[in-house]
């Protein structure tokens, strides 16, 4: 069993920064993908950052240049800079371990104007 626990969410003013962390624990075989998604109530979950085991990363235009995904010490991080009110959402960490995807419970990020 693999568990993911996110932390680091909170309330921040527009233009500010937050760093989300995701602790990965359990029986790790081979992580070939790590990613962060966000979701607003009533909308589909949206990919905001992705890392794959070739070393490649992906960011949609909405966050490119402002968000950075990184990893280390059994954690996945999402550095978020220049935050905007429309970044307000619940943020979820996910990994693909072998052939199985795992998700965390989410952490709320609120950006005030």
Question: What does this 3D model show about the protein?
Answer:
The protein has 113 residues and is an all-beta fold. 0% of the residues lie in helices and 60% in strands. The strands form two sheets. Strands 2, 4, 5, 6, 9, 10 and 11 form a seven-stranded mixed beta sheet that branches. The protein has a four-stranded antiparallel beta sheet with strand order 1-3-8-7, with no helix packed on it. β7 and β8 (75-80) form a beta hairpin. The N and C termini lie far apart (41 Å).
Main sheet summary: 7 strands, mixed
Return Rg in Å. 13 Å
Report the uncertain regions: none
**Helix and strand string, N-terminal first?**
EEEEEEEEEEE
Instruction: Write down the overall geometry.
Output: globular
What is the terminal-to-terminal distance? Answer: 41 Å
The number of helices is: 0
Structural class: mainly beta
Share of helical residues: under 10%
Mean pLDDT: 96
**How many β-strands, per DSSP?**
11
Strand content: over 45%
């Amino acid at each position: 069993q693999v568990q993911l626990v996110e932390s680091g969410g909170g309330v921040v003013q527009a233009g500010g920064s937050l760093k989300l962390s995701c602790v990965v624990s359990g029986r790790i075989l081979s992580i070939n993908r790590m990613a962060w998604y966000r979701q607003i109530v009533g909308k589909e979950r949206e990919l905001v950052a992705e890392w794959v085991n070739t070393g490649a990363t992906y960011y949609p235009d909405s966050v490119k240049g402002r968000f950075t995904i990184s990893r280390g010490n059994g954690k996945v991080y999402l550095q978020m800079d220049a935050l905007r009110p429309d970044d307000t959402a619940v943020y979820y960490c996910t990994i693909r371990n072998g052939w199985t995807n795992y998700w965390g419970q989410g952490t709320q990020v609120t950006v005030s104007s």
